[in-house]
Design brief:
With 94 residues, this protein is mostly helical. The chain is 76% helix and 0% strand.
Length: 94
């Protein structure tokens, strides 16, 4: 018999944290690339600022943790929508 995992909030929460761990650098890269494609060097800086702003927003929405024990649903779904939107806009802009 195994001991319960006191760190995990459950499989669903663990999968959400893993998804955010994969989406965060992908979203940041897409925002920087999208800014560069639209506005050149200045857009690169704007994209970097947008990526940092998303990271600060995520950090504040999840009890001052970037990878919280239990990920809140609303910020998670907003992040999915942002990533999908940035991906589509980047593909269209290329």
């Amino acid at each position: 018999m195994t001991a319960p995992n006191s760190v995990s909030a459950g499989l669903g929460s663990d999968l959400r944290v893993a998804a955010v761990g994969a989406m965060a650098p992908f979203l940041a890269g897409l925002l920087v690339l999208l800014g560069y494609l639209w506005l050149g060097g200045f857009g690169l800086l704007l994209g970097l600022g947008a990526a940092i702003a998303w990271g600060v927003w995520w950090f504040r929405r999840n009890d001052r943790r970037f990878f919280p024990r239990d990920v809140a649903s609303t910020p998670f779904y907003i992040t999915i929508a942002l990533t999908a939107g940035a991906f589509v806009l980047t593909l269209v802009s290329m």
